[in-house]
Amino acid sequence: MTADFVMLFAIGFLAQMIDGALGMAFGVVANASMLAMGLPPAQASALVHTAEVFTTGTSAASHIYHRNVDWRLVRRIAIAGVLGAVLGAWLLSNIDVTAARRYVYAYLLLMGLYILFKAMRITVARQAPAGWTSPLGFAGGFLDASGGGGWGPIVTSTLIGSGHAPRQTVGSVNAAEFFVTAAAATTFFIELGAAHLQHLLPLVLGGMLAAPLDGWLVKRVEARALMVAVGMLIVGLSLIQLARAFRLL
Known about the structure:
- With 249 residues, the chain is mostly helical.
- Helix content is 78%, strand content 0%.
């Protein structure tokens, strides 16, 4: 068992634990880690999204079992999210590697700041999905695929910040994410081939080991505190990667 295998396994496990509890951050944490290991942005995003096909499927099953899913919300965000993910994956696959790397780092930094902002604006829960959830799903899917992560930070934090119940939001966003990541992974495979799959197994194993705990964790976490924690984590990782990209570190 190589050091890379153990590292990828740990990244998959920890990223999925965070994602399952908050409905966000597998992509941004795992993608930042892949970039730090030297993978090109498109291949890093392809690897993360392929792994997420397995982890989100397991996570969605856990949330369904624990009755955390609002199927009205899933329908609204999943279809639009798939369309956005296909477009975003195609775009990232055809951008120059150096330009893409800096774009992704800056995007992840903004995601961290956005999460911190949304953490301060959690309001009373709604009883039904808002009417703008489909455009939100499209934007989340596009940015998730083109930036290597962001479905949760965009969709989950916006819905919770606008008053949707945290438990049902996290469960529903995770359920819809399965379809979004499958669409992104398929598009990346068509555009890039299968070179990124050599790193897939440990990332999937770590994520799937953590995923069954998602439905249980989301019932026992305080949304605001954990959003602040994950926002700070993403900001820190992004600043380090940006400094490296501009040769400041």
